[in-house]
Amino acid sequence: CSEVSTVVSQIIALPCVALSIQLEVLYHALMPDSLNHLPVHPLWQSPLTIPGGTRQSPINIQWRDSVYDPFLKPLKISYDPTTCLHIWNNGYSFLVEFDDSTDRSIIDGGPLENQYRLKQFHFHWGAMNDWGSEHTVDCKFYPAELHLVHWNAVLYPTFEEAVMEGNGLAVIGVFLKLGACHEGLQTLVDALPAVKHKDTVIEFDVFDPSCLIPSCPDYWTYAGSLTTPPLTESVTWIIKKQPIEVDENQLEAFRMLLFTSDGEEEKRMVDNFRPLQPLMNRTVRSSFQSRHLLNAEVQPKDHAEQMRP
Ligand SMILES: [Zn+2]
After folding, report:
1. 90 C-alpha to center of ligand 1: Å?
2. What EC number(s) are associated with this protein in UniProt (predicted)?
3. Which residues are placed with Cβ below 5 angstroms of ligand 1, an ion?
4. 44 pLDDT band (50/70/90 cuts)?
5. Domains (ranges, CATH) in the chain?
6. Cα of 133 from ligand 1 centre, angstroms
7. Fewest CB within 10 angstroms: 89, 210, 212, 228, which?
8. How many angstroms does the Cα of residue 122 sit away from the middle of ligand 1?
9. What CA–CA distances, in Å, run from 255 to 126, 148, 197, 248, 282?
10. Which pTM does this prediction carry?
């Protein structure tokens, strides 16, 4: 059992999967013309080694197609800053990891039936500000996206087991947009030069990631997957509607990180997002009643239909 856990941990850390041609066609059909040639990370360029599922992530959230669910509760977040342990450059992103041996940093409520423990958070970002997020809203990319990864310690004994189960994980997604300097994020940004190379780890104790979660309670939720191997369909996604603001220097600090180890030819850590996946037979629920239609951009009808495989 522990061998399986170790293998799963390694798989999560190792880039090795890519996108089928059909998915890539769909992905490009979803993009506005100006974003039709987004860079694709090598992880997603070779033949797909894991069979496509029916609830893969990320997805485009089509605002007007999301369904208000009045039974969705507010999300409750309770993090203990002293559970923060370290920052690890894993060669695809940097992970801020937490002590998850007890229920000290947890979320519950929202769409969740159990309490979930914080395991780690990380970001995805682009080489430019025009893209970088994994999820999109009405086909709009943000320059970066934060993922706070939690696991269901009520039903499963370990994170590695929760990763493999349908209701094992809950990930909060927060979009980053360009604006004012984010003081909470800056503490983290200041530490990044020390994990510039792949496989470097530094201690990073006492950090409360709730400072990175916007105050507006509104969110979308849907059933999806991990966006890195093993791509298991174990994630309840909770995507916050309101983005947080970060400034150009903070995004540039992300882009100074490297995919590569010390001594290798340097490759900047940018464009570490998975391409969009088909919605299939899923509904995105919202915790809020939408007034979006009042000022929505009208999508051409045939374009909207392309979104539905
Ligand atoms: Zn992620």
Report:
1. 12
2. 4.2.1.1
3. 147
4. confident
5. 2-306 (3.10.200.10)
6. 9
7. 210
8. 6
9. 8, 20, 12, 11, 34
10. 0.84
